[in-house]
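Show me a record, fold above all:
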Amino acid sequence: MIFFDNASTTKADPLCLDIIKKYCFDSYYNPSAQYHNSVEVGNDLKRARQNILRLLNGDGQFVFTSSGTESDNLALLGTPKKKGSRIIVSKAEHPSVMKVANELAQRGFELVLADVDGCGMVDFEKFKPLVTEDTALISVMHVNNETGGINDIKKLVSYAKSVNKRIIFHSDGVQALGKIKTDMAELGVDLYSVSAHKLHSIKGCGGLYVKKGVSVQPVIFGGGQEMGVRSSTENIPAIMCFEAVCNKILPSIDKYSSEINQLKQYIIDSLPQDGSVIKISCQGSPFILSLALRSVRGEVMLHALEKHGIMLATGSACSSSKPAKGWKTEYLPEEYKNGIIRLSFCHENDIPQAEYFINKLNLEYSELIKYAK
């Protein structure tokens, strides 16, 4: 089996096994309880929180959540905003941001969508006039989950703050963490969302970085865990797995990126020269590669390759039931618009897998094009 869908989820690192065993069967105590064993677990939680903050070079809080989706929801819903104030999000945001933004519009906020290019990257010149004195919140993803395009978050933050220093700037960093540099001090963001299972940890854990001085109100109410921001007993096994994987991967980003970039370039260089398959050109994360097939539907190719043990996507797994539209196809010729497939890589992928993929892609395309209308 060849798994080229690592942007949707990743295989958990084996180091998670011992951590799960420890915190599910041995140190399974509630960190909020008062007896000694629970206090020790609470101390482990504090150390994990501070270590992730250190790895992110963040000055503030790191709130553990259940997922990247919850982190995005907390960022947009939990920040104080005056009713009627402006909210700016890019047209290429993940549904966990876009749908919350639409909900805020229903609640009386002015929602403005920032234009993006064919890679999902914000057009800076078109972005600038959107930022006004009454703008309260901006959310722009760091790395696009469908193309790998990287937004210049530092530049966007700097400009927004020059217009109104009180603007809260949030970035969805789910596809950035462990793939590119994620330095909170350098980016200047107020809020930054991440997810554990995109980084070879287990599902059920996410996080929201909250810059010092930024206020976030809870959207889940209860016992007041996570500094009163996110009630619910913490998922200690998942949190400790997340911290361990961050320890392993974040200091080695350059090494992983270099290896994956060679793999990605091999696939690009091996694509047929007749225009039957083209890459969606994006200067961005080496971990994501989007291709477009001429006159063959992406979903049909997905299932054709699945027969050969190759797993990939037609776009975001969270919206995979919907056809590509809008910014994703705006710059593509008509005959390619329904043929988008997305490959996303991890350190377990290698050149022999890429060779096999190219071979089967060409084989299946030559058959499927016979039935194109």
